[in-house]
Specification:
TIM Barrel; rSAM_sf; rRNA processing; methyltransferase; alpha/beta; two-stranded antiparallel ribbon; DNA polymerase, domain 1; elongated; ten-stranded mixed sheet; 11 helices; 12 strands; metal-binding
């Protein structure tokens, strides 16, 4: 069953072909601007509301919801029509509310430190399933008198591996939900053709690259896609994106104790980041069941940041959110399924996202 947000205006008009012409526009506004379910559209006749409830059921069924940080972090585990499960995280900050959404059920990228990938890849999400996650978060934010302002595509899956549906969702969020392109961030582990394609789009969204290593030997181990798109090709695509969009580039760097947090890693990262003017988001790993390598200790995280800053790189440390509610991508799904994560070693296929959840600094 498709999401109500999978329909375009023409499809919705076709569904309501027996109604006055203004009804389709009314329902469209209710779904997007009003964030309302059909049963909540009190400006629509009751019989039509009931009909729409049957014809346009939600694509996301809430399996569980977890709340942490005094209500400032909310994580959902959703079941889709075919039994696939995805996660969404809403994070409230002093000056913004950000939702981290999934673009795939599972992930096939094979990064070695990721809770999502330990469950394997199931399928791409439809555009409507992506949009509906944002709507759910916006409704939740509204219930506490907040407004959802930012969307980051950093949840389950590799967004640029599901490009067409991702971009359809981005366009819908911008055009119909009124979210600024400058408040939409697409993260990628380094799908070079997708980055170059993104550079040709009309909307200047933010680009965040999950880098995690600044030499090909180490990145081949941590991020297996690097063997297909090595750093030279990835950095060239980043330069192309910067030239086309003029937006700040972010590098995501999950700090792994004794693996990529050494002084030599600082030097290599600085050499890549400085010429691009890239901002570096340092991510202390959340605990990930079955992953034998630990995140860098707090003192080393601070030292790594300070060394980067001294090297002329703008760097911030993300504050992990929701550790106590399995908020890192893939953790909640694994716990609810009751099939703890499998042990993995560096270089093994275990997914894409670092064991964390947080929003880019200054998003």
């Amino acid at each position: 069953m498709p999401s109500p947000y999978e329909l375009d205006r023409d499809a919705l008009a076709g569904l309501l072909a027996d109604q006055p012409p203004y009804r389709a526009a009314q329902v469209w506004r209710g779904l997007h601007q009003g964030l309302r379910r059909p049963a909540e559209m009190t400006d629509v006749p009751p019989a039509l509301r009931a009909r729409l409830e049957t014809a346009l059921p939600p694509a996301l069924r809430e399996v569980t919801r977890s709340v942490a940080d005094s209500g400032d972090t909310v994580k959902w585990l959703w079941a889709l029509h075919d039994g696939a499960r995805v996660e969404t995280v809403l994070m409230h900050y002093r000056d913004r509310s950000t939702v981290c959404v999934s673009s795939q059920a599972g992930c096939a990228m094979g990064c070695t430190f990721c809770a999502t990938g330990q469950g394997g890849f199931t399928r791409h999400l439809a555009a409507g399933e992506i949009v509906e996650q944002v709507v759910a978060a916006a409704r939740e934010a509204r219930s506490t008198d907040r407004r959802l302002s930012n969307v980051v595509f950093m949840g389950m899956g590799e967004p640029l591996a599901n490009y067409d549906r991702l971009w359809a969702a981005v366009t819908r969020l911008h055009d119909e939900l009124g979210l600024s392109a400058r408040h939409l961030t697409v993260s990628t582990v380094g799908v070079v053709p997708g980055i170059r394609r993104l550079a040709g789009e009309a909307l200047p969204v933010n680009l965040a690259v999950s880098l995690h290593a600044a030499n090909d030997e180490l990145r081949d181990r941590l991020v297996p896609l690097n063997r297909r798109y090595p750093l030279g090709a990835l950095l060239a695509a980043c330069r192309h994106y910067l030239a086309a969009k003029g937006r700040r580039l972010s590098f995501e760097w999950a700090l792994i104790d004794g693996v990529n947090d050494r002084d030599a890693d600082v030097d290599e990262l600085a050499q890549l980041a400085r010429p691009l003017g890239a901002h570096v988001n340092l991510i202390p790993l959340n605990p990930t069941p079955g992953y034998p390598v630990l995140g860098s200790p707090p003192a080393r995280v601070r030292a790594f940041r300070d060394l980067l800053t001294a090297s002329g790189v703008n760097a911030t440390v993300r504050r992990n959110r929701g550790t106590d509610i399995d908020a890192a991508c893939g953790q909640l799904a694994s716990r609810v399924a009751g099939d703890g994560a499998r042990p993995v070693a560096l270089g093994s296929p275990a997914g894409r996202r670092a064991g964390r959840v947080s929003a880019p600094a200054g998003d």
